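RETRY 2/3 - previous attempt timed out on the joint model. Re-submitting the same 776-residue input unchanged.
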Amino acid sequence: MSNLENFRAEVSEWLEENCPPSMRTPMVEDEVVWGGRNAVYKNPESKIWLDKMGEKGWTAPALPKEYGGGGLNSDEIKILNSELFKIGARPALNSFGIWMLAPVIIEYGNEVQKMEHIPKILKGEIRWCQGYSEPGSGSDLASLSTKAEDMGDHYLVNGQKVWTSYADQADWIFALVRTGPKEPKHSGISFLLIDMADPGVTTKPITLISGKSPFCETFFDNVKVPKENLIGEENQGWTIAKKLLQHERNFISNFGLAAGGGGDGSRTKGVVGLAKTYLGEENGKIADLDFRSRVTEHKMKEHSFGLTLQRAGDEGGKASAASSIFKYYGTEHNKERYELMIEAMGNKGFIWDGDEAESKEKAITRAWLRTKANSIEGGTSEVQLNVIAKRVLDLPA
Amino acid sequence: MKLVLNEELQFLRDTASNFAKDKAPVSHLRKLRDEDHPNSWDEGLWNEMVELGWTSILIPEKYGGSEFGLAGICVVLQELGKTLVPSPLFATGVLGVTSINQMGSESQKKDLLGKILEGNLTTALAIDEGSHHEPANTELTAEKNNDGWVLNGKKVFVIDGSSADLLIVIARTSGNKGDNQGLSAFIVDPKSKGINRRKVPTADSRNYANISFDGVTISAEEILGEVDGASDQIHKVLDFGRIAMSAEMLGNTEEAFAITLNYLKERKQFGVLIGSFQALQHRAAKMFCEIELTKSAVIAAMHAADENSNELERLSSLAKFQAGTTLHTVSNESIQMHGGIGVTDEYDIGFYLKRARVAEQIFGSSTYHKARYADISGY
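RETRY 2/3 succeeded.
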């Protein structure tokens, strides 16, 4: 047996022993695990699963073992994922810390910061949120004005962030702050880690068009932040911020493709299944031929896009300018998918509440509205196109 | 299946890239067009391709070939597509070789593949009869007579039809127009009595012929495979052709896009480079995305062919659809972004547009392949 075959056997055996039975069933919305100090585990087995996976380092299989990661190479990760897929295992942990923060701490943080923060992220002990956008700084992120004044042994932070995902449930925030008010806008920004339990930090949820509140406003009022919480050099935060955005964009584009929006059942049923259910079938085909044609085109694009993600992986793709293509395409595609789904559902596609529609139908309606933010958050589609034009195609400014 | 090129394929691609740039830039095609060349391809250039071993790429080692597979011919055609090189490589090296290898008897393979390998034989696949590709609509009949077959009917838009040394003719041996079954393949000497070949001048200045068959008698040995056997086999031949054509179209697309990007970086209006305009930048960025998707579909399809994947048909249709829609957009946008100079004959970009529309139709348009993909996928 080759090393990889051995590894597969080991993984399979370990999963058999350690993945609790209910963690091999499809995810239900209120059992999604985000971890953190205040996490509530409705299903106790999800906590067991998190601890087992966290101990093994497999919540972040690619990260080095010394910081609590799995230390696996890309072939081993493929095997792990395929074994997880085989038993229908739920994700043990959803985490902005893993998807966005941990890779940049590894790249830009010092040894103390790595040892302090990364293991807690990977074990799901600390839940992180992202403090980037501000009321006056959306697409023009670098114009941000939350200020961090140098007070000798600490920074004094004042200002406001907006669109901080789940800030009301997070323990810590990674924030972009202005440390150099006189520098040019890109050269006066620092990347700071702030404990949300510190005095002066408050949050307020924002209700979206979907009726849900995944985002908050976060306020900083004379918050004292120790200087050891600065990642990288003072005023060099923009470089780190951009790198983190690439990780975020990769995550959003993969998420849209793989999960079909998240937890609404569309992944199993799919747009084709919905079309056959609501528009009818003739000889096994979607009866509405115009709709069938549009769904086919959509599915073909999805196929090509999936192959492109695979190709980027095969080419050894790390976070790079190419990730901007994925963010743009993945989110636009996901929006189109939901438009097709609610169109297929007809007047069942916009029932908001009550008993006249099933809960999975209402979930699709809400998810459709949620997708509208996909092409805005993490850099709008227009910003993505600017990035492709300038950095990839080298078109003049 | 990894969606990358191994070292052998990269080497083959680099060789083809240099060949296209050095020996056959677009001016080569322009010259053939201007002198109204009878074959629309250059014999000297073709001999050099044979020397480089490109006719042997799809031929199994058993018959003296290099067996580089469809991926090998795809990377070559993609590079030749960048400068729109006309040659018999597609009709002979892909369609001829695959037809014979797929359907032919042992002695036919030895004889015909050997001749193709050495550059002594060019072929043409005569299949379409109407304005749109649809093999089931074959009406040209082959009927048994005493010691062979008699062919009656017509073929249109036969690629290299006026220059080929040998025709591979798809004929109906049973059933009616519209039936998927009942098709057979024949190898026919184009100089046979009763054959009338008319070269059709097309927008892309390549070689196509409409061919009529009026009581053409051929011997019993000149069937390729079993009677009615082409019905199933021909689809694999066509899928190989579609994927190879998609690779060539990808090359067309990449180069038209590159030429256009260069223009955006040097043309000034209102005192600035027009490439600085966001209206053009966003359109260019969207085209870039579609080209990336096309690359992935083509590379997946060619590897699927070489690995005998059961996804071949779906990936073939995906590649042809993706290459067709992308080339359609890019060829139109290339003209528009060039402005006035884009519609002059003196400038090369128009050649890409003319080739694009022809290539889009070959062995099924984007619409055809969308419908086929939907059927295969059970939508």
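The domain at 3-101 of chain A is CATH 1.10.540 (Butyryl-Coa Dehydrogenase, subunit A; domain 1). Closing ticket.
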